[in-house]
Amino acid sequence: MTAKLINGNEIARQIREELKQETAHLKSGHNVVPGLVTILVGQNPASISYVTAKQKISKELGFYSVQDNQPENISEGELLALIEKYNKDPQIHGILVQLPLPKHIHETNVLLAIDPRKDVDGFHPINVGKLMIGEADYLPCTPAGIQQLLIRTGVETSGAEVVVVGRSNIVGKPIANILLQKQKGANATVTICHTGSKNMEFHTKRADILIVAAGKPKAITADMVKEGAVVIDVGVNRIGVTPEGKAKLCGDVDFENVKEKAGAITPVPGGVGPMTITMLMMNTVKAAGIAAGVKHT
Ligand code: GUN
Fold first, then answer.
1. Is 67 a catalytic residue?
2. Cβ < 6 Å from ligand 1: which residues?
3. How far apart are CA 235 and CA 250, in angstroms?
4. Is this structure's pTM higher than 0.90?
5. 161-204 pLDDT, tens digit each
6. What is residue 114's three-state secondary structure?
7. Residue (of 62, 166, 148, 52) closest to 139 by Cα position
8. What are the backbone angles phi and psi of residue 288, rounded to the nearest 5°?
9. Reduced to 3 states, what is the DSSP secondary structure of residue 35?
């Protein structure tokens, strides 16, 4: 069998269209313009390309958007003071500090400094805790995007065996948490595998829905996948440069072989990636609505 391709570009485009309308409604009906600041420290090429894309899309949706570039040697205190400035700025509803940060800055201190109401990444411990108890305002963007891909392609999650490969705070742990909630688009039986797991294949082969965020090209091969499974590949591995000078990407799944066995699969690029940025925009619209006392639809 050849798997159905889950087109993240198309699903992201649909959601962005909905968000554009919601943004226009917030403006015309409530005089509120969603405001997003993206803070970039240093010159990491991957981070530069991510924040550039975030800025471009936020402008397309009609947001007030600010790109704040800071030098690699900014002190932790200076960065915390900058965040505090945006915490107090009523035009800003969402604050995103692009990770990773230089080694001399303690990431947890930075995430704790962001007002949880403006934490559109969903990384503040208050928002992590709210997700844990099923009361999240902001879901972290990549896991939220994965859930939307499943919902909008009609994949039944309730009662499904979901296996997540990877236990990062950004993807593995939150997607497991989201999908185990007793909620629509969730209610699954969830297993998390990681570098300490014995016999990874035993787990991955049981999965109706296999979510891979291992950070390793071809970590999942066809023999590790059940016939007909839905495979979501979160990996973004840079494996060279295209003739046009763009980064050549591959996922964590051996796509060519796994697509012959899976029921549905996300490509890399064009699967989870475009959803992540779109969910950041959704969280920012939601934050603007909450700040203005308008209910998000
Ligand atoms: N670096 C890689 N992914 C992310 C993300 O989702 N948010 C932030 N802030 N930094 C990242």
1. no
2. 96-99, 121, 141-142, 170, 276
3. 7
4. yes
5. 999 999 999 999 999 999 999 999 999 999 999 999 999 999 99
6. coil
7. 148
8. -65, -40
9. strand
